[in-house]
Design brief:
It is built from 4 helices and 7 strands. It is α+β, with helices and mostly antiparallel strands.
């Protein structure tokens, strides 16, 4: 599988979860604390490069625990977990190490998906600025600011 094939496959999986993620984003806006200064979309690829990852919303501002607790039920937009029958949702995995950094491709594919979510359900309604970052500085051009109104 090439880097582009992998990125395309990841994007198809992410796109299949867009409606659920948009509902969660709407829930974040409904519960957004006044003291939140920024909405942060975090991408968390696994350390081993096997292909699991999470996309989680966090808030920036005073008392992070309280801020993020207010949106807790809506924070996780996407999460790949190991289940009894393999990965859920099913994302491509590699039997040997590919000739590219899996975590970078995950971060870039997820960032593109987040930008599309933001255009559909965040940009016009968000009362706060937003940004995308990947854990451990993965991705080729992250962090990225997201445009607002």
């Amino acid at each position: 599988m090439t880097k582009q094939d992998y990125q395309d496959a990841l994007r198809r999986v992410l796109d299949a979860h867009t409606e659920t993620a948009l509902r969660k984003l709407e829930g974040v806006f409904a519960q957004l604390p006044d003291k939140a200064r920024e909405i942060q979309f975090g991408i968390f690829p696994d350390q081993g490069g096997e292909g699991t990852f999470s996309v989680v919303i966090g808030l920036e501002g005073p008392d992070l625990y309280v801020l993020n607790k207010a949106i807790d039920e809506h924070r996780c937009l996407f999460d790949v977990v190991h289940g009894e029958d393999g990965l859920c949702p099913s994302v491509p995995m590699f039997s040997r190490e590919p000739p590219f950094c899996v975590q970078d491709v995950i971060a870039d594919a997820a960032a593109g998906w987040i930008e599309a979510l933001w255009e559909r359900g965040g940009r016009a309604v968000s009362p706060r600025p937003a940004m995308i970052y990947a854990n451990d500085d993965y991705g080729m051009d992250l962090p990225r600011a997201l445009a607002t109104r």
